[in-house]
């Protein structure tokens, strides 16, 4: 394929499509915020002057359930397909039958300092059987060969452009070949529940191609009539517990997918799994998939579901399909944005902009696009009613993906949802709560069998069936805090939105189940141990990290690692607070009393001999000083047990931890660097936060903005860094923790002018703010509930005035520089600064 990388023309929506979109928005009553220009002329576009060479370079589209990766090759294109519920394996009791007897012995060994013996027993008697957890698999690939239409690999193509418009959620390939303009658009529609591939040409009858569908393993392909392809199969495990005696059963989720081709004026034929289109000017391909996870009744039910969707979608014009999709997407996407000045580099291909940063440069105006790319990916992989975003969101090309592309809940799944509340995507948070609900029943069984405890427990991974046992190995698996950490998310949803009904029916039950477990799980440390007389967790670990003993040997397991104690304190504290908000339910009086008593017996934070926050119960030597996990800083971020003003010495120790971890090579994955950005922002060091943003791009961001889990260009894609990094950008501009809403708390010098719109703070607030020359100039607050909020103006500034409508609201600045205001639901408030 010969491609000319000359001037690239921009293409916008058809005026008819824009009109349909506007009419649909009015009809549905959706409040779609105004964009920077007309529909389709978004500032938030990724674009490239060449096709994607490999899967990690392609561009993602998704509707929460159905995902696709778009490559954009003019001659031989590939659209990689996903459906969120295609997992290998099955619902299965993997609890180790020896665990209940082993756990007390392991605790005794750890308290006695016999760590090697404890780890040997834990590895044999605590890890799940089978040890491997099911994984998420690809649906497969749509492969398009355009040789029949004259587009061969050696054809000369000009004005090539591959783009992803984040505002419309459409990936577009456009190019010129022998005087004909070709445009291909791909999107995944939530209203119509299909993936849409649209091809047009300016010359009549210029489109011809052959289409096939396949996947790496366990599938069949066929034709269904003259205009359909079928890809069906079962997600059988392909990497089944190597080296382990107990294997998975050779079963998995069954799936049935179909492609329907609509080509008015052209010819469409399909035979033996090959669909051919000839002499067409415009073609629309519609793709859907149904699985036995959603349709357990079997193949007939799956086929009927797919047929309904394809028939309904094909009854609409392409313009209507596109308009319905755009309006639906924009009602999420246009709620919030960050601007850091006019983008003078908008015409520069995205890969070149990223490379400029990798080469040591800066590109501040790329950061708002990166922020919106994170929001786009969350919208596209986590919609109400869909499954939660896994390690890769919904985008995965493999039947044996890295780390199983499952739910890793010792940081990764939680990081996926840090962005949701603060970036005005609270409804995209709901699938995570559904995942937690799925773990409740399995978690109750594991809690009882392993620990003799009430409530629920989930270790460091789970799957779509809510598996709760410890898997993989000692470093990650023997850690019983996954569900407890996740229970902080529905609590945060309540804090941001103030919905007492949600607190009562969703958040409080999860807090309650986890508190019940933790209170039974906690063990009194005996005399002669580091936390003698205190209540500690264990057997446990500081996730995936090791410490060294005096003899130089490294171990994972201990009793009472700092992260565990921090999470336990947070769960019990929120349980007590939630019970108060709900009128102290009489049936939970004993539970709340136990929680209060236990909180008083939890160990306090400790500082190491060299000034760092202590990670383990003793001041051990780090086995890996630059380890990617910073689990012991959980109390700094995402929680607020450590703050600059409330616990200054601990904040200092947290900063020393970050500095020494970074000096030793920390932040070696995208998610790890993203966590560091958020921590630096919490410490209100804008320069350090921004430097780590740059390092996130230089070390762990691909040229299409995909996060990579490692320092090498070919490291696997994970979505967590793509969502944790943008969360850090918000944290630099707006914070709401420890009872105070802070405006521009960590603004770096590199962002002297800018604004944000639609960011959210705890207490039911939505905030817009502008700043010039590093100083806030005005802000607007919109309250969704009655609340008294304490605010902190940017450093060196104060609030000069506050108004609601034309009414002046008195502002009294406190000695600490904060001021309190009583806000009324539905009111809008304007602030000016001095």
Short description:
This protein has 834 residues and is an alpha+beta fold. The chain is 31% helix and 23% strand.
Topology, please?
Blueprint: E1 2-3, H1 15-28, E2 45-48, E3 59-62, E4 66-70, E5 76-83, H2 99-111, H3 115-125, E6 140-145, E7 156-165, E8 170-177, E9 180-189, E10 194-201, E11 207-214, E12 219-223, E13 228-234, E14 254-262, E15 267-271, E16 274-280, E17 282-291, H4 299-314, H5 318-333, E18 337-339, H6 350-358, H7 367-381, E19 407-408, H8 412-416, H9 418-422, H10 430-451, E20 461-462, H11 474-477, H12 482-486, H13 488-497, H14 500-521, E21 523-524, E22 535-536, E23 547-548, E24 554-555, H15 562-581, H16 589-599, E25 621-622, H17 648-663, H18 670-682, H19 686-700, H20 720-733, E26 734-737, E27 740-743, E28 754-761, E29 765-772, E30 775-783, E31 787-792, E32 799-804, E33 807-808, E34 818-823, E35 828-833
Parallel strand pairs: 1-7, 27-31
Antiparallel strand pairs: 2-7, 3-4, 4-5, 5-6, 6-11, 7-8, 8-9, 9-10, 10-17, 11-16, 12-13, 13-14, 14-17, 15-16, 18-28, 19-20, 21-22, 23-24, 23-25, 26-27, 28-29, 29-30, 30-35, 31-34, 32-33, 32-35
